[in-house]
Design goal:
The structure holds 2 protein chains of 2 kinds. Chain A has 13 helices and 10 strands. Chain A is of the alpha/beta class. In chain A, the strands form 2 sheets. Chain A has a 6-stranded mixed β-sheet with strand order 6-7-8-3-9-10, sandwiched between helices. Chain B is mainly α. Chain B has a domain of 214 residues. Classes of the chains: A alpha/beta, B mainly alpha. The structure holds adenosine-5'-triphosphate (ATP) and magnesium ion. Adenosine-5'-triphosphate (ATP) binds next to β2 and α3 of chain A.
């Protein structure tokens, strides 16, 4: 490569960076909308939100002597990116399991979009529009990537036993689903894996696949359990872009994440778990200074570093 | 030794109605295991209720044979529901235990003396399929060199292979549809399917019923083929032949069970005929093997063949070898 083109490349990259910085400087429509909605909300655990899509009450789950989850009250504001943070074993994944019907709580009631869904089976909760991904990915290994995604579409006529024999009755819908799946594969940089078995994918690719598959359901709310774990930095950046775009389109996103830079850059609201309980919630900047969060999760070193801009 | 005679016996075995019937029952098993991942170790139980449903309808209720066949399939639906409702929400091994036990319990119930007035007890039932033989369109035997098929055999082969290929076509349509995609997803990871809004229990139930009904149809054909059934024809080893056939051909392949059955029956009848004629030609000394051992030896040889196959083609003859190499995490 000649010096000239190298220079050019660097210059290009510089402008790209500038654009990115600019974008970060001015918050997107969704971010502004979320900030406005959450403006008057206090930073106390269990605080009520103006327009909650998910409301959970008195949720508890015990494993033998361990109390994995003990949440008195938690609301998630519609159309926001809400981050769940907390130390390992704090009960974040267990909380996901409970509200999505993959685990049964010892007690608790929760409602989604105004409907009481306590105790509903997991597949029904997914059909209501609340879809989750798993911390340990569940790729359907002997299905191709495309099939993995196509499976996610809901209301498929051809999924009924008798209708499945009448190809003309579902062929058009199938073509639409395929087109949507291919579009999503492209968005997640997986087009080259289209016809490969999902079992041949790397760990990070599986994370991407699972998120794309969940989006095929067209959920109103998506729960992402560490979606960025094992995904390379460049792709993490674009993934964050996708997540923000989804929020801007009106979707509600709850994500578990340990990377504080990620949390600070995209979340509208942060909920901190420790030992099964919600110990703090609030806007990212407030959470970073919250003593309870510092003690339980961030540690003093990390928080001081964050607070000092120099 | 007459090589041609041995080969023609083997070919007759491979193309005979039994091969078709076993293929059909294995197609049912393939829906269970190959596509849905259900562990059914009692497919022979579905065959039994199919066979007896047919025979009893004809003999005790004077129903036409075709009605009997439908009754047999209805019995399989009931059996599948009884087995599936309590176990399909649990881990896979519960279905395995329930099916293996149910098949044995059924055999004992049907052979017990209190059931004898209806089932014929240990003596079984005979002469219930005249309705089908009356329809035989073939008037004379077919001779192809050393191969000879009687008109009765031709008719049975037509019916049995026709049914089997129809069933294979049905399965092809089903598994190449979104319904089949959900089934395979359930096989791979039930929780993933649930997280996408699929009613996993309902799909497993549908698969269990469908595969069981094909098993019952195979049972009906088995009964019709021999015009005689006894409960002791439905022993657990039959289920394991079906598993052998499915794995031999290639699980989760539409034509796998058919190919598997043809190869299985070819090997079995070939070894039988070969050992017999080798023995009468004096090639095998009587101190080494006596004719009554042949049955056991041929199964041992088939077992050995299966072991070699698993070592060199673990996904079966037409299975997707690449698919099998994926580590299932
Ligand atoms: N199936 C289970 N059986 C027993 N204990 C469990 C089970 N699942 C979770 N736990 C316990 O519940 C607690 C919460 O676990 P959970 O997986 O929810 O943590 P987490 O917040 O997601 O942690 P991480 O950040 O490491 O993913 C832990 O103490 C864990 O040991
Ligand atoms: Mg977790």
């Amino acid at each position: 490569m000649s010096d000239d083109s190298h220079e050019e490349l660097l210059a290009q990259r510089e402008t790209a960076h500038d654009e990115e910085r600019q974008r970060e400087a001015e918050p997107s429509v969704g971010a502004r909308r979320a900030a406005a909605a959450l403006a008057g909300v206090a930073n106390v655990p269990g605080v009520a939100k103006p327009d909650p899509i998910l409301v959970a009450d008195d949720m508890s789950r015990r494993f033998g002597g361990v109390t994995a989850v003990e949440v008195e009250h938690l609301e998630v504001q519609r159309g926001t990116i809400t981050a769940l943070i907390g130390p390992n074993g704090a009960g974040k994944s267990t909380f996901f399991n409970l509200i999505t019907g993959f685990d049964k709580p010892n007690s608790g009631r929760w409602s989604f979009d105004g409907k009481d869904i306590s105790g509903a089976p997991s597949f029904r909760i997914a059909r209501h529009g609340m879809v989750r991904t798993f911390q340990l990915t569940k790729a359907l290994t002997r299905l191709t990537s495309l099939e993995n995604l196509m499976l996610g579409a809901t209301g498929q006529r051809g999924e009924r036993l008798l209708a499945s024999l009448l190809r003309p009755s579902w062929a058009r819908q199938e073509a639409d689903i395929r087109a949507r799946a291919e579009e999503l594969l492209g968005r997640f940089n997986l087009t080259h894996m289209r016809d490969e078995f999902a079992g041949t994918m790397s760990g990070g690719q599986r994370k991407l696949l699972e998120m794309a598959r969940a989006l095929m359901v067209k959920p109103d709310m998506i729960l992402l359990d560490e979606p960025m774990a094992g995904v390379n930095p460049a792709l993490t950046q674009s993934l964050l872009g996708h997540i923000e775009a989804l929020r801007d389109e009106g979707m509600t996103i709850v994500l578990v994440e340990h990377d504080m830079d990620v949390i600070m850059s995209i979340s509208d609201w942060v909920v901190c778990f420790a030992q099964g309980q919600v110990i703090a919630e609030g806007r990212p900047d407030d959470i970073r200074r919250d003593t309870a969060v510092i003690d339980a999760y961030l540690g003093t070193h990390r928080s001081l570093q964050e607070e000092d801009p120099s | 030794m007459d090589v041609l005679a041995v080969l023609s016996v083997a070919i007759r075995g491979a193309l005979g109605p039994e091969a078709a019937i076993y293929a059909l029952a294995a197609i049912g098993l393939n829906i269970h295991f190959g596509y849905t991942g259900l562990l059914n170790f009692g497919q022979v139980g579905f065959m039994l209720v199919g066979a007896y449903g047919t025979a009893i309808s004809v003999l005790s209720f004077d129903a036409p044979l075709w009605v009997g066949v439908i009754v047999g399939m209805a019995c399989a639906v009931v059996l599948a529901l009884i087995l599936g409702i309590p176990t399909l929400r649990l881990r896979g091994d519960y279905l395995a235990i329930a099916t293996i036990a149910a098949a044995e319990v059924l055999r004992y119930v049907y052979r017990s003396s209190f059931a004898e007035p209806v089932t014929g007890g240990v003596f079984g039932l005979v002469q219930f399929a005249d309705g089908l033989y009356a329809l035989n369109p073939f008037s004379g035997p077919l001779e192809l060199g050393p191969l000879r098929f009687s008109d009765r055999a031709l008719w049975l082969m037509t019916v049995a292979w026709g049914t089997t290929f129809l069933a294979a076509a049905l399965v092809w349509l089903l598994v190449h549809s979104p319904w089949g995609r959900v089934l395979r997803a359930v096989r791979e990871d039930e929780d993933a399917a649930r997280s996408l809004g699929k009613n996993v229990f309902a799909y497993k139930m549908q698969a269990l019923v469908l595969g069981g009904v094909l098993g019952a149809l195979a049972g009906s054909l088995l009964a019709i083929n021999s015009q005689a059934i006894t409960p002791d024809a439905f022993i657990p080893i039959i289920t394991f032949y079906l598993w052998t056939i499915m794995i031999l051909g290639g699980a989760s392949r539409v034509l796998g069970p058919i190919l598997g059955s043809i190869v299985f029956w070819f090997l079995l009848t070939f070894l039988d005929a070969f050992l017999r004629s080798a023995m009468s030609a004096g090639w095998i000394p009587g101190t080494l093997l006596v004719p009554s051992d042949i049955g056991a030896v041929r199964f041992a040889a088939v077992g050995l063949g299966l072991m070699l196959l698993m070592m060199f083609r673990p996904a079966g003859l037409i299975g997707n070898q690449k698919e099998l190499r994926l580590d299932v995490r």
